[in-house]
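INPUT
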Amino acid sequence: MRQVLSNFLIEQAATIEDFVVLSGDHGYALFDGLRSESPSKFINVGVCEQAMIGYAAGLSKNGFKVVVYGLSAFLPTRVFEFIKMDICYDHLPVIMLGDGAGLVYNTLGASHQCAEDISMLRSLANLDIYSPADKFEMDLCLKAAANSRNASYIRIGKSDKPSIHKGPQDVDMTRGFSKVNSSKSSVCFIATGSMVSTALEVSKDIDALVISLFSLSTFDRHELLTILGSAKTVVTLEEHSVNGGIGSIVAEMVAESAIVSSRLLRIGINNRFTESCGSYDYAILEHKLDVGSVKTRILSFLES
Amino acid sequence: MKDKTRIDPILMRKTILKMAYSGSSVHIGCAFSLVELVAVLYSKFIRIDKDNLKSNDRDILALSKGHGVMACYAALFQKGIVSSEEIESYFQDGSKLKGLSSVHCPGIEVSGGSLGHGITVATGIALADKLRGSRTRNVFVIVGDGEINEGSAWECFLFAAHHSLRNLVVIVDANSYQAMGRSEDVLNLEPLKAKFEAFGFECCEVDGHSESSIEETLNFLLSSKLQTPKALVARTVKGKGISFMESNNVWHYSRLDKETLERSLSELEP
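OUTPUT
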């Protein structure tokens, strides 16, 4: 995923004259390629994320194509209001990359974990949110963001998991979500980002249609409702708070729909901070987002 | 192509009073302190085409201190960019001009209602000019002394100096007051000029109500050969022009009634 991102930045820098990437002193190795190919198109603005969003807005107003990079714990969490007023209110097509979303930086503690980015940003106008699960989704989300009239936020979570899709042809960018298996089960898992691979793993034991939802603002609601309409049980899975993320998106759709009467189970981070220090896998376990815990929860839900 | 039409500060103050009275709006004192600054900028320094407000070579006047926006409306009215209907319908239901600077109002370049924002956007605009190698226009940004309590402003000052944004001119409307009191009592900013210089700006201080001094000092700064950003600390009086409003902070929040309107207007007669 990170290589795809690096390649995208290099390619954009090579083809767009007025193009610039801003970082708030983060992402060292990620920008090696860009910095060596187009050194003038990368600016480390220093440790000042809020001002960086304003600079991005000013550059964009002045005709630049701008990509802003930060850790999701800071971009958007720390700088939300700058995104609201300087980018979204002015309807500027700035691309924002939020890295390390979810529990990626577990050893560093609560400051660097991020379970609230989707929730916060969903309430902003003129902004598209993407949450890719693998390199193919990442590539197409970046391209969609580059062509959008809106601002974009791309959530980059655990990025070294194996690919979900065989190739770009499996990613349905028009719909904003993809079926990642062909199950006819009446159980449907809707997952995003790192949790798509978890959902797929669980579906080996609990037969379920698995959907990767990666375009969280602009997906084809009608088509997803049709799929939900034939499901008896829907489970959402995300490395994000259950409040405001894809669990909420799907819950709202189900509640507002006359044709869907599915039961819904929302699996995610349950409005709590991580307690202990430890590896990423340990944090996933603590939040019961590992394959075993997820399986147990779904089985007990199905039996209830 | 400089537009030499003089913007009249007295007329601006009358327009502001009419807007504030008919719209029953606050922030009169904040607007009055920057009247001469805005008047001189629009008279002498801002090249702007009223038929093409977004023209790429226009000079930028970014009002970061959004609370003084009535001063900009009043100047833009004299320039024919804001209409008399828009002035007269201030704060009426469905009207266009908002109580704090907003990019969606004609001639307004940044949204300044949330303090410490406009300065960041203006810095980005100046950065784009530098990256493009085309610094033929100037980016003026007006901040309030109260406003630069905000850390984001100081982030910009560091950044602008580090990147030699020499076409960025930060103008501080130093009226010595902020919403709840004197700046020196709330959070002392002085010595402002020394601070700007320590940050790497070329900085001058000026009487912010003397049109000739403002013009002369801005010309001095703009003709500088230094590659640094510029700062102008304009010493102003909150509520300037109306005796009972001057340095009387209740006019940050007070509204005009018929009597105070008439008294104010009569003070502006020669």
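end of record. The longest strand of chain B covers residues 168-174.
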